[in-house]
TrEMBL record:
GO terms for molecular function: DNA-directed DNA polymerase activity. GO terms for cellular component: cytosol. Belongs to the DNA polymerase type-Y family. This is DNA polymerase IV. It comes from Listeria riparia FSL S10-1204. SUPFAM superfamilies: DNA/RNA polymerases (SSF56672). One of its GO terms (biological process) is SOS response.
Amino acid sequence: MVREIDYSVAPRRDILCIDVKSFFASVECVKRHLNPLTTYLVVMSHAERQGGLVLAASPMMKAEFGIKTGSRRYELPDDSRIIIAPPRMNLYLHVNEMILKIARRYVSKDDLYVFSIDEFFMDVTQYHALFGDTMSIAKRLQQDIWQELRLAVTIGIGENPFLGKSHWMWKQNIIGAA
């Protein structure tokens, strides 16, 4: 006998998956008073070597030159617009804490789940009375981070972390968007 499950009565959550675009590269741009969305910058270890490793690339480096995390120094084009920055982990950790401080304005620490230095999840289910619907909270968070830190974030929304991440990946065209 096959038993059908009525999912309409299952509890639903409103989860945001927040990812900072090209985090290390974006932080380096902001520290130089440059727009992280329009600047050609890579964060690279051992830039003096041809095998130096790109740890992060700005969105323009990715879009125009196809340079991404894991690219090598010898793959960089000879272009005077490109800035090569050494990694500064203490700075990135400090900025990460600033981002999380903004997020904690919207949810308690129990509803904030840090996944990595540039990605975290928020359960906003119980905060609608304070901040509006899920989309409104996502937009406000995105605006606050941009206005205060000049960092662009993308946000996926789902009923659980997996669906939130899947939505984010679909929006970024990482998984098939038909």
